[in-house]
């Protein structure tokens, strides 16, 4: 093994060489996903692991890790938040909001320390109607914490208050908590769990309202980038083909409903008045009106309020709302049109009638010949 500063090391069961192996292996392990399929990478990885076992380096690794667990601290202005909630709406790290209708699993965030994966499903069997029904957090192995996995699903009675293996957190040798699951159900009588990752000054907040889940992640700005080549919602956003132009929907709700065969469960005027009563503003107001108008579900009104409160409480230095509680800013879009519309029921009936007539004509023609 040739590594800068380690050229004079002697391979074998000795602390300097084993510590070099530990450092090298940590680097390789943290790069595994990015180097998937690279034969040279895995050749090096397996060779280093073999040396680690043969030289009995486990004892040196344990001794080294006892002395390494530096908790990151960041000033508030260097923190960012990303949230996915509702039917569903995404607020990215840059503060922009997108509404999208993606089904299946997507990475919400992926960096060297943890991965958040969300699964969206169609909850009403209607076009453009999806919501988060599963959230998986994988905390990667680190010198401050072991690998931990947390899962939440909308079909469970309550949010889990521990990781999947039953543990509630992890401490260093000097009893500093690096990771812990905080349960706010007892304190606030609210289905709300926080997974605090103190070693990287990050946190994941998961809420549940009825059959709906929401997730917010708070990280230092230097950790918000994507670790692998895969696209993550918090950084790259929704796929273009799945984006719902919510400003156009709020300006031309009847056209949108007709285009996608959606029912307007609550008139838009009543929806705006209801969302005012929970003090939703700006992006959260738009999301609240959109969700209530198209579903009539009060759980989604409460969720918009909850997520807005979380953003204000978690990063008050970045909370600068305009206080907007109307959709008149979208009046210029009142004549908007929508693409890829679904056939209306009348068009479907006409198609079946025309097909039936053609079939009868064909049978009559065949019978005469």
TrEMBL record:
It comes from the Eukaryota. Gene3D superfamilies: Mog1/PsbP, alpha/beta/alpha sandwich. The keyword Protein transport does not apply. It holds the Pfam family RGM_C. It is found in: Cell membrane. One of its GO terms (cellular component) is side of membrane. GO terms for biological process: BMP signaling pathway. The chain crosses the membrane at residues 350-366. Residues 10-58 form the Repulsive guidance molecule N-terminal domain. Residues 79-316 form the Repulsive guidance molecule C-terminal domain. It is a lipid-anchor; GPI-anchor. One of its GO terms (molecular function) is coreceptor activity. Keywords: Cell membrane, Glycoprotein, GPI-anchor, Lipoprotein, Membrane, Signal, Transmembrane, Transmembrane helix. Its main location: membrane. Belongs to the repulsive guidance molecule (RGM) family. This is RGM_C domain-containing protein.
């Amino acid at each position: 093994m040739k590594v800068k500063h380690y050229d004079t090391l002697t391979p074998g069961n000795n602390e300097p060489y084993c510590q070099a192996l530990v450092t090298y292996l940590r680097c390789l392990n943290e790069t595994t996903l990015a180097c998937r399929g690279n034969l040279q990478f895995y050749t090096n990885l397996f060779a280093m692991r073999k040396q680690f076992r043969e030289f009995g380096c486990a004892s040196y690794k344990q001794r080294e890790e006892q002395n390494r667990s530096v908790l990151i601290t960041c000033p508030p202005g260097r923190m960012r938040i990303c949230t996915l909630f509702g039917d569903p709406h995404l607020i990215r790290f840059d503060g922009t909001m997108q509404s999208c209708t993606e089904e299946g699993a997507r990475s919400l965030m992926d960096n060297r320390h943890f991965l958040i994966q969300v699964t969206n499903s169609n909850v009403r069997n209607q076009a453009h109607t999806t919501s988060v029904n599963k959230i998986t957090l994988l905390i990667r192995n680190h010198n401050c914490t072991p690998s931990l996995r947390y899962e939440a699903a909308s079909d469970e009675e309550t949010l889990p208050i521990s990781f999947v293996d039953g543990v509630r957190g992890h401490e260093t040798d000097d009893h500093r908590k690096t990771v812990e699951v905080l349960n706010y159900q007892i304190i606030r009588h609210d289905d709300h769990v926080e997974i605090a990752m103190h070693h990287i000054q990050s946190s994941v907040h998961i809420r549940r309202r009825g059959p709906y889940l929401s997730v917010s992640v708070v990280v230092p700005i230097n950790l918000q980038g994507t670790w692998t080549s895969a696209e993550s919602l918090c950084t790259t956003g929704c796929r273009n083909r799945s984006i719902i132009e919510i400003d156009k929907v709020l300006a031309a709700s009847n056209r949108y409903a007709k285009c996608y065969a959606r029912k307007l469960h609550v008139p838009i005027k009543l929806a705006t008045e209801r969302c005012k009563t929970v003090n939703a503003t700006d992006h959260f107001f738009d999301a609240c009106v959109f969700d209530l108008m198209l579903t009539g579900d009060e759980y989604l009104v409460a969720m918009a309020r909850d997520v807005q409160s979380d953003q204000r409480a978690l990063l008050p230095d970045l909370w600068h709302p305009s206080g907007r509680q109307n959709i008149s800013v979208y009046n210029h879009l009142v004549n908007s049109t929508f693409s890829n519309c679904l056939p209306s029921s009348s068009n479907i009936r006409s198609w079946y009638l025309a097909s039936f007539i053609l079939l009868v004509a064909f049978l009559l023609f065949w019978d005469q010949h």
